[in-house]
């Protein structure tokens, strides 16, 4: 029942009693109104594995599905967070990807956030879960909702074929940097396939060396060149890949900041990252957020949501403040 990562703010609850938690959740939904604070207190302080035990206990003692009961009792963003917390990690990712492609329009940012940041093994499991849950291959869903080079990058990521060794071939790194430069800055137009081949296939250590060599050859950072040479979703996905290779917690910190800055709040992005990373690397995301923006993630969420009265106060900060340093 341990957490799925070792840098999360949600850790295994001591003296865990799934039967007691199931009864408390049942009590929170009895009578007029719903005790959202009680639901938050339990679910935001249990690991994903512990929540699965609670779901089983609830069905055994109440004879109903916990997710179904909570879904019928809750609404808005609070409902979205609670239902997300009850899912296994790959099930949640598959669910978010499905929602991003369901109906008219596609939330490309969701596809990018998930596929650019997950390991080979995580992507393989997401593919399997998606096929099981929705009776359709994830690749088919993606190709049906996207197009062009953006589609090809996503399909490459879905193959889960990135080299995950730590080997760095010096000659190959120099060659890769040269080919990317010649495919972009050094020519009229851009050969995006060269960027795909290097950025979607090479291992992290190798790519970090490629980025260093690229700076020497071009006089520019690879991110700057991507912004100059590309646009739209293709620019976004290549930048996400580079940022995740360099510093994944910093990538998520930036995504959280951008989801909350300005007049509005992109709740879907905020919820997705808080739920998905709470048990994995939220401690590091918090540290990066403070370093990059001079404010704690906890305080930033509180201020932004105080300004937006339409947001149901699940208090996503519960998922980021269960340890010191908030």
How would you explain this protein's 3D organization?
- By secondary structure, the protein is mostly helical.
- The protein folds into 4 domains: 18-86, Annexin V, domain 1; 89-159, Annexin V, domain 1, CATH 1.10.220.10; 170-246, Annexin (Annexin V, domain 1); 248-311, Orthogonal Bundle (Annexin V, domain 1).
- Helix content is 66%, strand content 0%.
- It contains 18 helices and no strands.
- It has helices at 18-28, 36-43, 48-62, 66-73, 76-85, 89-101, 108-115, 120-134, 138-145, 148-158, 170-183, 192-199, 204-218, 222-229, 232-260, 267-277, 282-293, 297-307.
- Helix 1 (18-28) crosses helix 3 (48-62).
- It is elongated, with a radius of gyration of 21 Å.
- The model is unreliable at 309-315 (pLDDT under 50).
- Its main location: membrane.
- InterPro entries: Annexin, Annexin_repeat, Annexin_repeat_CS, Annexin_sf, ANX4.
- This is Annexin.
- It is found in: Zymogen granule membrane.
- It is a peripheral membrane protein.
Extended strand count: 0
What is the molecular shape? elongated
Mean pLDDT: 91
Number of helices: 18
State the domain count. Answer: 4
Helix content: 55-70%
CATH architecture of the largest domain: Orthogonal Bundle
Write down the secondary-structure element order.
HHHHHHHHHHHHHHHHHH
In CATH, what is the class of the largest domain? Mainly Alpha
Largest β sheet strand count, sense and barrel closure = none
Amino- and carboxy-terminal Cα gap? 25 Å
CATH homologous superfamily annotation of the largest domain:
Annexin
Structural class: mainly alpha
Pick out the low-confidence regions.
309-315
Proportion of beta-strand residues: under 5%
């Amino acid at each position: 029942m341990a957490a799925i990562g070792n840098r999360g703010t949600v850790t295994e609850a001591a003296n865990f009693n799934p039967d007691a938690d199931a009864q408390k959740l049942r009590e929170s939904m009895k009578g007029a109104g719903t005790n959202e604070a009680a639901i938050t207190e339990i679910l935001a302080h249990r690991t994903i594995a512990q929540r699965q035990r609670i779901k089983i206990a609830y069905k055994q003692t109440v004879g109903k599905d916990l997710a179904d009961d909570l879904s019928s009792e809750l609404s808005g963003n609070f409902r979205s967070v609670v239902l997300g917390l009850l899912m296994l990690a790959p099930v949640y990712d598959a669910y978010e990807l499905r929602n991003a492609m369901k109906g008219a329009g596609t939330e490309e940012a969701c596809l990018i956030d998930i596929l650019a940041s997950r390991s080979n093994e995580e992507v393989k499991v997401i593919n399997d879960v998606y096929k099981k849950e929705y009776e359709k291959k994830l690749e088919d869903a993606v190709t049906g909702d996207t197009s062009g080079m953006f589609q090809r990058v996503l399909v490459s990521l879905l193959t889960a074929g990135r080299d995950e060794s730590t080997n760095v071939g010096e000659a190959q790194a120099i060659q890769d940097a040269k080919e990317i430069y010649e495919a972009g800055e050094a020519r009229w137009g851009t050969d995006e396939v060269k960027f795909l081949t290097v950025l979607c296939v090479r291992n992290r250590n190798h790519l970090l060396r490629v980025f260093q060599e690229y700076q020497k050859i071009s006089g520019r950072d690879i991110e700057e060149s991507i912004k100059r040479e590309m646009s739209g979703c293709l620019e976004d996905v290549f930048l996400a890949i580079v940022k995740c290779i360099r510093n994944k917690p910093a990538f998520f910190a930036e995504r959280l900041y951008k989801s909350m800055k300005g007049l509005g709040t992109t709740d879907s992005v905020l919820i997705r990252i808080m739920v998905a990373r709470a048990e994995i690397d939220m401690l590091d995301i918090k540290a990066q957020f403070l370093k990059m923006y001079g404010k704690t993630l906890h305080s930033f969420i509180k201020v932004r949501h105080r300004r937006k009265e339409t947001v149901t106060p699940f208090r996503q900060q519960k998922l980021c403040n269960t340890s010191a340093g908030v």
